[in-house]
Write a structure and sequence with these properties.
By secondary structure, the protein is an alpha/beta fold. It has helices at about 5-15, 45-60, 80-90, 100, 120-125, 130-140, 190-200, 210-215, 240-245, 245-280, 290-295, 300-310, 310-320; strands spanning about 30-35, 65-70, 95, 145-155, 160, 205, 220-225, 230-240, 285-290. It is about 45% helix and about 15% strand. Strands 2-1-3-8-4 form a five-stranded mixed beta sheet. The protein has a four-stranded mixed beta sheet with strand order 6-5-7-9. Helix 2 packs antiparallel against helix 10 and helix 6 runs antiparallel to helix 13 (about 310-320).
Length: about 325
Amino acid sequence: MKTPWTRRALLTGAAAAGTTIIVKPVRAADFTFIQYHNQSDTSTLHKNLVAMWEAIRRETNGRVETTVYAENNKLAAGDPAALKMLIAGEIQFFTLMGGIIGTVVPMAEVQQVPFAFRSAAEAHKAIDSPLGAYMGEEMAAKGMYLFPVAGFDNGMRQVTTVARPVNTPADLAGVTFQAFGAEPVTTSANLIYDSLKSGKVGAQENPLAILENFRIYEVVKYVSMTNHMWSGFNQMAHLATWRGLSENIKEVITRNVTTYVRQQRIDQGNVNASLRDRFAAAGLIFNEVDQAPFRARLANVYATWKDKLGSKCWTLLEAEVGKLG
């Protein structure tokens, strides 16, 4: 009597004879990209970029492979050189602050208008708005693609001082901020510690994470929460490379950029909040600062910024943050 060939019989026979599993292979990458950024490999930016590109690799079944390089792969000339590489297509993706993008697209410096944004959350809202879309249009004319939700976060810049806290514009006289009759000194981040310790400067302004990364908390006493400028990193692509991708690949990348930008903003906010608690416990003295007196003295500064950025950009900015000047 013949035994009927049932699915159960076949599976049982396979188990007895030893199982062979056939797995559909992941296809070789159709696109191999490079992503630069200027932060350390321990930063929330790096961690989220790595996770983002891994998610994209999985969703595209390996068609898109991207290597993320922290600190611009140790590029000697830093951000300006990396920006030139992006525009030339030597790298395909890059994150950068608006101030340096502004060397090619002047209106991108809108992200660095002093006291325009009261918080990181307000900055995020503004750069995700028509203001950001306009910035993208201007960047496209120079060979760059700006993602619809592009602004990874660094945090709001705060003033840290050696001798006294900052509560009013008068407290900045002779310390920093050219707009208030001060004496600014520009130096690279890794030289800030020595400049403060030697007395060459009496203050510095950066997000709290910079205090941690370069041990600046060891040589300052006061942290005045001025929130005078937002600091962040815009996710960009080489325009021709971007336009050459299929719509489904672009959709996967865009959706994941949005997801991980928003996650990194949360992560970085948590980092800056935890650093405040840690620095306070270590003896640094924090004070909140009312922005109104500073804004009141910026009328002429804002007039200059408006001329520089253009009326369209300025209108879009004020639509998000209110009247400036």
